[in-house]
């Protein structure tokens, strides 16, 4: 059989298209007149473009027991660096994000049915919370792995995630799933209902989904070493702890914070979604879809570490006597530290409501020309709370008034802390809003020139209002200022696709964006495909891109963060050191250049392969100086490095500040290789990414791992095997490979080993309507690699599995 352009494109994405969806695609080719592929505005009669695209089907998601979009995407070989997800306990706010190429979560654009999703989380967010998109509504996910600013505008520097929802569906689909870790905890489950019917001359689809994720405590995993913090129950004064006799002695113990901290964070998600399409007349179609998601999530950390500088003039002499200087004088202040176990663990709670409504009209004109107009509105409202927060000001007053109690080393009744107004519940509010109006025209001329032109107007706003106590700096947590701002952008774009011959086709796009904040930006894209035969094609794309500064970057006030850092002076008693982060209203957009060059080859019937070289170069990047690097340079005598982060040459880190600027840079390149084999009852695919280089602000990270940057493994691969035992029974095997990396901690180097996670599953069709699926993730219960400067649990939870072997079961019934 002669290979058509569309079958060759299907072969290139075959690794993630299951047998059912592949067959459906093959049998429906003749019915496809015009489709739109991620990365292009042109409605095409084939799927062939110059850009590399990976397609993940709903069946593939189900087979692997994935219950969230973040879990699906974070295991892709193209993901690197660090992202937020179910195992992000410290500072995640319950959100889930994706990080393509390790270039930053805010450099990956997330679309829903080809249109932007509203930023979502706890307020003034820079990226989409993937929790807002229910898995039950997903038909497939398309991952565009090159820059697409010329097509979609800002944020599409590293690539585009386009989530396609189920539409034109008739019938009822009921699903349920359940999972539990092999250790007997982390029990999770959910259910969904999808119903579609023909109504009023159109098709209406409605859906509901509920899911609940169970908690796991860090200390319940053998691979988690006990924590050791200098903030201890009973408190310390001047670095010494009460000796039980009214005096103080050197501290010889530390506090294990892993017993109160989550390894897997619990959440509850409820989503309702609907879509409606109707042919208004022979040339006009109405499309509408709406979605609502409510997220209730929690994180839990050890009780608040209170850090207060006490005025020695207000302290009883019996407690300060031993702290006198050689000349008999007292220091003006003595540092008091206490792990507030008396109050209980810090419990973070988020409630987010995300709404999205999209309306569109599409129509046909003469001469193979189509038009479309659309309106998309999105809103995200959030309230996040922190229970058992500590009011530092009230605590300091209480210490002066009740010194015998606070310096006794004994526990303090929670009722006393309440009476003293020391315990309070921190409450913060935030939100995001987006409104887009767009219109476009696309068509095909008599000379086979495909074209698309359009205009777009977009408004974005966001705010985050911290608790009044936090804003005043009276909390024992870091001080934080409110954030509030908005911007608008008007855009014009154009795109063409032209076959110059039977073998060669070129495509080009350009876009002009005018921002209310910084001015205008123009981007372009140029691509080509050359077909040597019906089974072998080469492709290439060169493009420019940009990322506009977002609300948080422009209008974010001071926000303190306790980062894991190595103090070269040795003045800091803990590796968690306060860094003040600030924004800048004068930020300019980032600029980028990208290039891909690859080939698609169908070797024989059933055997196909793709290989693509890619490179990205970002300049004028919105970035912060590497604080650790600046500290090291300052320690070595570079005064400019000291001034850059507001520290002294003597190692005074009390006002260390990191301000966003346009001085950053990032370069990365690599090779994606995919091979897929299909024959009779067996399907095998191998998807691999080899990282050639990753450099940020002059520092190379390829092959390294770091608690702040995450992991940049040189080689990552996924192997999938699908074996059909019979028409009703199928077995699956998946392996995820992560090559070992090198790191440095306090001057000492270390290395992680290569890791392979094995997973198996099986699906069985009880009858034509009822299907069950079960499996085991991390079959061999492989522990995460030890990372001494890891961002949590001495590892990188977004890269390595910290949960362990997990069993899952799901069922689906259609009628």
From TrEMBL:
Q: Which PANTHER family match?
A: PTHR47234, TONB-DEPENDENT RECEPTOR
**Keyword Signal belongs to the record:** yes
Subcellular localization(s) per the UniProt record: Cell outer membrane
The secretion signal range is: 1-23
GO CC terms, sorted: cell outer membrane
The domain of life for this entry's organism is Bacteria
Q: Please identify the protein, giving its name as recorded.
A: TonB-dependent receptor
Query: What does the UniProt keyword field contain?
Result: Cell outer membrane, Membrane, Receptor, Signal, TonB box, Transmembrane, Transmembrane beta strand, Transport
**Where does the record place the TonB-dependent receptor-like beta-barrel domain?**
291-779
Instruction: Tell me which family the UniProt entry assigns to this protein.
Output: Belongs to the TonB-dependent receptor family.
Say where the protein is mainly found. membrane
Q: How does it sit in the membrane?
A: Multi-pass membrane protein
Ranges where the TonB-dependent receptor plug domain occurs: 47-160
């Amino acid at each position: 059989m002669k290979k058509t352009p569309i079958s060759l494109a299907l072969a290139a994405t075959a690794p993630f298209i299951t047998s059912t969806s592949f067959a459906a695609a093959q049998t429906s080719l003749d019915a496809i007149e015009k489709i739109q592929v991620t990365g292009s505005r042109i409605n095409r009669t084939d799927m062939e473009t110059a850009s590399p695209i990976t397609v993940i089907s709903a069946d593939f998601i189900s087979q692997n027991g994935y219950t969230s979009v973040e879990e699906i995407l974070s295991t892709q070989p193209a993901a690197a660096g660090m992202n937020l997800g179910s195992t992000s306990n410290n500072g995640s706010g319950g959100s889930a994000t994706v990080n393509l190429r390790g270039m930053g979560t805010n450099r990956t654009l997330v679309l829903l049915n080809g249109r932007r999703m509203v930023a979502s989380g706890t307020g003034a967010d820079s990226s989409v919370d993937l929790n807002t998109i229910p898995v039950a509504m997903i038909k497939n996910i398309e991952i565009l792995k090159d820059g697409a600013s010329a097509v979609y505008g800002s944020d599409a520097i590293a690539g585009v995630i386009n989530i396609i929802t189920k539409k034109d569906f008739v019938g009822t689909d009921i699903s349920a799933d359940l999972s539990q870790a092999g250790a007997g905890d982390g029990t999770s489950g959910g259910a969904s209902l999808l119903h579609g019917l023909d109504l009023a001359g159109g098709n209406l689809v409605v859906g509901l989904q509920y899911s609940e994720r169970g908690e796991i405590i860090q200390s319940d995993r053998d691979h988690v070493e006990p924590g050791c913090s200098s903030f201890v129950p009973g408190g310390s004064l001047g670095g010494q702890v009460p000796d039980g006799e009214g005096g103080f002695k050197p501290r010889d113990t530390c506090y294990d914070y892993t017993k109160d901290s989550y390894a897997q964070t619990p959440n509850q998600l409820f989503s309702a979604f609907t879509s409606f399409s109707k042919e208004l007349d022979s040339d006009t179609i109405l499309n509408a879809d709406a979605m609502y998601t409510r997220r209730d999530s929690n994180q839990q950390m050890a009780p608040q570490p209170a850090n207060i500088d006490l005025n020695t003039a207000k302290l009883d002499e019996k407690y300060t006597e031993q702290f006198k200087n050689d000349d008999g004088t007292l220091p003006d202040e003595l540092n008091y530290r206490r792990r507030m176990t008396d109050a209980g663990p810090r419990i973070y709670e988020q409630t987010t409501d995300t709404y999205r409504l999209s309306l569109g009209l599409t129509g046909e004109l003469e001469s193979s020309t189509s038009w479309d107009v659309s309106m998309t509105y999105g809103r995200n409202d959030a309230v996040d709370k922190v229970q058992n927060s500590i009011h530092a000001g009230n605590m300091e007053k209480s210490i002066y008034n009740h010194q015998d109690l606070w310096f006794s080393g004994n526990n303090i009744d929670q009722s006393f802390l309440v009476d003293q107004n020391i315990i309070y519940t921190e409450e913060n509010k935030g939100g995001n809003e987006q409104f887009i109006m767009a219109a476009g025209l696309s068509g095909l001329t008599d000379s086979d020139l495909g074209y698309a032109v359009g205009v777009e107007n977009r408004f974005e706003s966001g705010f985050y209002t911290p608790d009044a106590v936090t804003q005043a700096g009276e909390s024992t947590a870091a001080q934080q200022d409110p954030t509030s701002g908005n911007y608008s952008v008007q855009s014009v774009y154009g795109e063409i696709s032209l076959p110059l011959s039977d073998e060669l086709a070129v495509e080009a796009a350009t876009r002009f964006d005018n921002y209310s904040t910084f001015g205008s930006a123009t981007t372009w894209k140029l691509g080509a495909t050359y077909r040597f035969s019906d089974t072998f094609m080469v492709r290439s794309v060169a493009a420019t891109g940009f990322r506009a500064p977002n609300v948080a970057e422009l209008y974010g006030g001071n926000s303190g963060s306790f980062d894991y850092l190595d103090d070269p002076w040795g003045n800091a008693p803990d590796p968690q050191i306060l860094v003040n982060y600030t924004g800048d209203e004068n930020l300019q957009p980032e600029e980028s250049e990208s290039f891909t060059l690859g080939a698609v080859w169908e070797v024989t019937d059933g055997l196909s392969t793709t290989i693509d070289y890619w490179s990205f170069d970002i300049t004028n990047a919105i970035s912060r100086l590497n604080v650790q690097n600046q500290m090291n340079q300052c320690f070595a005598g570079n005064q400019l490095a000291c001034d850059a982060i507001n520290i002294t040459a003597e190692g005074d880190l009390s006002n260390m500040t990191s301000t966003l600027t346009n001085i950053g840079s990032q370069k990365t390149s690599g090779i994606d290789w995919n091979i897929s084999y299909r024959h009779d009852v067996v399907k095998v695919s191998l998807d691999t990414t080899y990282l050639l280089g990753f450099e940020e602000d002059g520092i190379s990270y390829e092959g390294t791992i770091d608690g702040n940057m995450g992991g940049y493994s040189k080689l990552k691969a996924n192997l999938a095997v699908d074996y059909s035992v019979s028409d009703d029974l199928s077995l699956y095997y998946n392996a995820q490979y992560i090559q070992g990396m090198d790191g440095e901690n306090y001057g000492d180097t270390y290395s992680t080993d290569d890791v392979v996670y094995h997973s198996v599953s099986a699906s069985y069709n009880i009858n034509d309507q009822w299907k069950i699926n079960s499996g085991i993730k991390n079959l061999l219960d492989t522990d995460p690699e030890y990372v001494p400067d890891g961002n949590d649990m001495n590892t990188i939870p977004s890269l390595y599995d910290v949960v362990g072997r997990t069993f899952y079961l799901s069922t689906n019934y259609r009628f």
